């Protein structure tokens, strides 16, 4: 199986700069009786585990919260986050490559995770990815105003 690189991995500084342009505010999460604000742009992927969601962050840390993946999906920026499977949502800013195959489409993230795309969501994911890449290329060509 041959990997097809779809984007150049972005630096942390570039991800943080793009976070503002994609309206990626902080996400308030319930955590042991209190609430914590987490920067949305540092989320690499979310993994559903029943009534819980496991967050994987760019620094390698993880956090589990007692909210379903469906509830979390409604709080995320729809331009940047893509649902690949009933158990996984990824941040497209951390996408490294797409691996097409006759049996199963999968993606690799820059943290080394490899996530399968469900057959039912594959065409929607490809459309979402193309739209995201178009918007990203438009943002990269526009010079910031000082």
TrEMBL record:
One of its GO terms (molecular function) is phosphorelay response regulator activity. Residues 37-131 form the HTH LytTR-type domain. Gene3D superfamilies: LytTr DNA-binding domain (2.40.50.1020). PROSITE patterns: HTH_LYTTR (PS50930). PANTHER family: STAGE 0 SPORULATION PROTEIN A HOMOLOG (PTHR37299:SF1), TRANSCRIPTIONAL REGULATOR-RELATED (PTHR37299). This is LytTr family transcriptional regulator. It comes from Spirosoma radiotolerans.
